[in-house]
Amino acid sequence: MNASAISVPHGHDHGHHDGHGHHGHVTLQYQPGLPLSKGKLIMWLFLSTEIMFFAALLGSYVVLRFGAAVWPKPHHVHLSEPIGAFNTFVLICSSVTIVLALEAARVNKVGLAKAWMLLTLLLGTLFLGIKAYEYQAKFSHGIYPWKPRGLIYERPDLYYGSAVRARLGEPAMIDRLKELDDAAADTLSAEQVAARTRLQQVRKMVASPDQQAFDLAVVADQIMPLPAEGAAHGEGHAAGHGGGLNDVFPWLRLPIVIPGGNMWASTYFLMTGFHAIHVIVGLIVFAILLSYRLDAKRAGMIENAGLYWHFVDLVWIFLFPLLYLF
Amino acid sequence: MSHPAHDPHGPVTRPGETADQALEYSAAHDHVAENAHGDEHGHGGVGKYLLVFLALCGLTTMSFLTYSPAWPWRDQPQVGWAFMMAVSCTKALLVVLFFMHVLWEANWKYVLTIPAAMMAIFLAIMLIPDIGMRNRMVSQERALHMARASDVKLLEKAAEAAADAAH
């Protein structure tokens, strides 16, 4: 910034000299180039780098998505729109509470400011909790941000069939399957008995020498059906399914087919993950602020924390429709 | 001396200016000195914030409409996308203008936000040739392994067949 430093001679003795101090003592005083405090200026500079950071992530997502031959529908990857909308609501509420905390601190209502700040912290935590629940729903369906994401296959083709065959042929798996085949029907639930029959069919189909493309689609559908619209969460399975085999027997961990699923998982976890990290940082800042007396002297600090938090909210405002509704 | 020595942004004498003139100038122009509770009154207010909050809730509900069965343009997703982006931009604008107080800030706001926003847009546009159009021309090997719309159809057919078999 073009802060102009002008030396001002002072009449009294400070006992230190600067380089030009030939005649007495010189103190440097700075005139800020922009009419805002240093903290706020730095926060805004940081936010403008953050704008570019998230714009890069969101922009690449949009470009990747529209350049893809196939992109999974939100319900194919177990995204629940109502949960996403609720999370949006939670973040908007927290944006309001932090603004109210600032207003209260400005007029020295210390207790009120603290209450709003605490509420902001709780709402942020609720957001993270819901996000964790959503992540869990992905993990339980075999969609991971890390290595086991190799479970996702793009198409129900020969490579997929051989991957299923390879998994079923692992020594530990052979033992588990034998155990399952030998289990008495009354030790299993009705769902498990039905799924056992389906699993036996699947094993036969992947081993068959004259399998058709459609057979492998059936195999993929049995292992993890792409849920129908509106049945995204929890028990949502296509009609007629007793649930995917991977859901009934979680130890199976058979490869699954989600067309476009790998790129989707990369972008989803990257964007929501970076957003979640920002939320966590915000929560730490709020926790630190809560340990102060939130009066008018701290308003600058609260304002800067609030600016950051509104930015986090802003990112989610774009992430929600892009991920859940597109 | 009338200098408030404790003030980090205290008045500065410029060439040909007395200390008192500097102080007057400072009082008129320096919005920083008491940023805790000085300059930023006369805007905001709890009522305004609540109004913005209600607007944001209303807008979120509106974008959620595209998900409901009542949305009339289900077969033309582009309509929904454009609608949702318009809603999102409106929400972002409300948050930035009111919650981040940008509406009441001095002109420095343009210095920081406009270049950042422009670079953000350029960045996305620059990705289009290499990333957005990556599937215009693909090698045979990649074509063999990449998902196609026909794969989704095949999977949907398999699901239908499974449903038929169950009933």
Largest interface by residue count? A-B, 88 and 85 residues
Note the gap between the termini of chain A: 42 Å
Broad shape of chain B: flat
The gyration radius over C-alpha positions of chain A equals 29 Å
Description:
The complex is a heterodimer of chains A (326) and B (167). With 326 residues, chain A is mainly alpha-helical. In chain A, 61% of the residues lie in helices and 5% in strands. Chain A contains 10 helices and 4 strands; from the N terminus they run E-E-H-H-H-E-H-H-H-H-H-E-H-H. In chain A, the strands form 2 sheets. In chain A, strands 1-2 form a two-stranded antiparallel sheet. Chain A has a two-stranded parallel sheet with strand order 3-4. In chain A, helix 2 packs antiparallel against helix 3 (110-140). The longest helix of chain A is centred in the middle third of the chain and has 31 residues, at 110-140. The radius of gyration of chain A is 29 Å and the shape is elongated. Chain A starts with a strand and ends with a helix. The model of chain A is unreliable at 1-5, 7-19 and 232-240 (pLDDT under 50). Chain B has 167 residues and is mainly alpha-helical. Chain B folds into 3 domains: 4-40, no CATH class; 44-100; 107-167. Chain B contains 6 helices and no strands. The radius of gyration of chain B is 28 Å and the shape is flat. The N and C termini of chain B lie far apart (95 Å).
Describe what is shown at a glance.
The complex is a heterodimer of chains A (326) and B (167). Chain A is mainly α and 326 residues long. Helix content of chain A is 61%, strand content 5%.
